[in-house]
Design goal:
Blueprint: E1 4-8, E2 15-16, E3 24-26, E4 29-30, H1 54-58, E5 59-63, H2 66-76, E6 83-86, H3 97-100, H4 102-112, E7 116-121, H5 130-139, E8 142-147, H6 153-159, H7 166-178, E9 182-190, H8 198-210, E10 216-220, H9 228-238, H10 243-249, H11 259-262
Parallel strand pairs: 1-5, 3-6, 6-7, 7-8, 8-9, 9-10
Antiparallel strand pairs: 2-3, 4-5
Helix pairs in contact: 2-4, 4-5
Amino acid sequence: MRRDVRTVSVKTALNRVAGMPFGWSLNPYRGCQHACVYCYARATHRFLDLGAGDDFSRILLVKANLPEILDRELARRRRWPDKVVVGTATDPYQPIEGRWRITRRCLEVLDRRRVAVEIITKGTLIRRDIELLQRMAARAGMAVCVSVPTVDEAISRQTEPGAPAPRHRLAALEALAAAGIRAGVLMAPILPGLTDGADHLRRTANAARDHGAAFVHADVVRLSSDVRPVFSAYLEEHHPELLAGYAHWCHGPAGVPPRRMQDRVHAIVPGWDMRREDAAAPAPRLAQGAFDF
């Protein structure tokens, strides 16, 4: 796919977040090359009158002046944020970061201002910045959440076609952990009928543990009205037998699963501490068994 990379200037850097266990987020880009078919952030392209489908991974916006605006915002504040989460609506280490280095420059600002940071990413380019992350961890606090929804490479290739293979993400996790950086795995989203079997979840969680994860968090997919057509197209091509089940399961404007589904989410790795006190997502929950459609 040919990318349309556009530079934009922004007026603000930090985003105030409500209803989450963190107060501030930072996103160096808009759109994402990883092209995950389930990505909730696809809806953000609609704010720009762009499509939530191919446009999300094809039209990429680089916030060229973001580091300078971030530095200015922090300089004006009497009290800096306790923590900033980087990568809530785009992957800060997607491939274009290699050229533009917006994430790197923003992290340097946050390091200089001694602000605690969490990073959420599928990108293995994060290994480039290990020395900086070590320094940030020592000064103010640093955690990295590596997104590995599944270790099944066939499913990963279909659902995350532009992302590094799970084994490469796990290798990046291992490198971060070996460098003394608090790093763990976001095993999310779980896809009912595909990745929610107990054996499947156990393999992914054990792989995270074996590569040094300090925590694991897992949750079930949410499909908003903007994301649902993209995900349905994927199902129609690869798993048409699941279409009817998802149409029944994903109800309501946000596609939130029924309570009975949430009740089946629980830890499946006995003896391993699944808590993640410093991480950005809610308390860890792992699905057990396939959901009944």
